[in-house]
Amino acid sequence: MDSVTATVPRPRYANVAAQTRTFWALTVAGFRRYSTYRQATIAGAFTNTVFGFLRSYVLLAVAAGAGTATVAGYDPARLASYVWFGQGLLAVVLLWGWTDLAQRISTGDVVADLLRPVNPVTNYLATDLGRAGHAVLTRLVPPVVVGPLFFPIYLPHRWPTWPLFVLSVVLAVVLCFGCRFLVNASAYWLLDVRGPMILWTLLSGVLGGLYFPLRFLPDWVVGPLWLLTPLPSLFQAPLDVLVEVDPTARQAGLIAVQAAWVLVVLSLCRLVQRRAERKLVVQGG
Asked: Phi, psi (5° rounding) for residue 269?
């Protein structure tokens, strides 16, 4: 017998095309939603660009102080690319700043999400992909255009790198959404997610590769991070693919690790959502 949850029975679509149209419509709606925040978008792009200068000078000073041509496989041009593309990807991947689900849980508005014929994980994922698409056009482009005007940057020399980079970014967006969904979903049990959100903000930035390349850390630290946590796959992986610090085979290996974590985290999101719905039934909705 199927378990009873707080969500109304969802119709079984006759074909994949119907599911695809629904998902696409939600994605487009997400793109349109974020396209309305024009002033916030301009301010965010400006802020990311300013911090690009600060981070570039800091990392280039570290490289110069090392007294070698490369540091952990990064030469100055690769470090500059790491910074400027990273500043652009920050808003695309969106490590923090999303609390929509947690707020709807605390206010009780999540009941409306549970009554829709679309799984909440699918609904929020589609919306987030639309947000990411908008961020690619408005938040990724400005730092990538400004950076090369002031710093020599490294662009891929191997043609497979560009499609691998695009794939890696898409996986990073989906994976980061899954992690943020789990942090937000803790509100089903905690109601107040400020604690988990602060912990997520600290860990995702430091261990995700936002502030510095993780290759600067000892190998005995980096290895377990890649294999035991999804954090390096959020930010470090696409940037490592872009600057070609590894051969093509290892780039593909990084993407395979990302894909594995995407499957694990999205499956966990579905499981947590089902458990949360059962909890809501026990509490009376």
From this structure: -60, -45
pLDDT in tens, 15-67: 677 778 888 998 999 899 888 888 888 988 899 999 999 999 988 888 887 76
Contact 224, 230 (CB under 8 A): no
Integer Cα distance of 44 and 91 in angstroms: 8
| Residue 74: strand, helix, or coil | strand
pTM: 0.89
Question: What number of residues does the chain have?
Answer: 285
- Locate 165 and state its tokens: 């980079």
Question: pLDDT for 93-119, tens place per residue?
Answer: 988 878 889 888 888 888 888 888 888
Distance CA 263, CA 48 (A): 31
Whole-angstrom Cα distance, residue 233 to residue 130?
21
> At how many degrees (to 10) do helices 76-89 and 236-243 cross?
140
| Chain centroid offset of residue 227 CA | 18
HSE-CB of 205 using CA atoms within 13 angstroms: 11
| Alpha carbons 195 and 113: distance in angstroms, whole number | 24
The CA-atom distances, in angstroms, between 177 and each of 14, 120, 202 are 28, 13, 17
pLDDT for the residue 11: 52
71 three-state secondary structure: strand
Give the span between the Cα atoms of 24 and 83, in whole angstroms.
32
Nearest to 14 by CA among 25, 22, 6: 22
Rounded to 10 degrees, what is the CA torsion of 265, 270, 274, 279? 40
Question: Looking only at Cα atoms, what is the longest distance across the chain?
Answer: 67
Written as one letter, the residue type at 253 is G
Q: Among 47-51, 110-114, 241-245, 277-281, whose mean pLDDT is lowest? A: 277-281
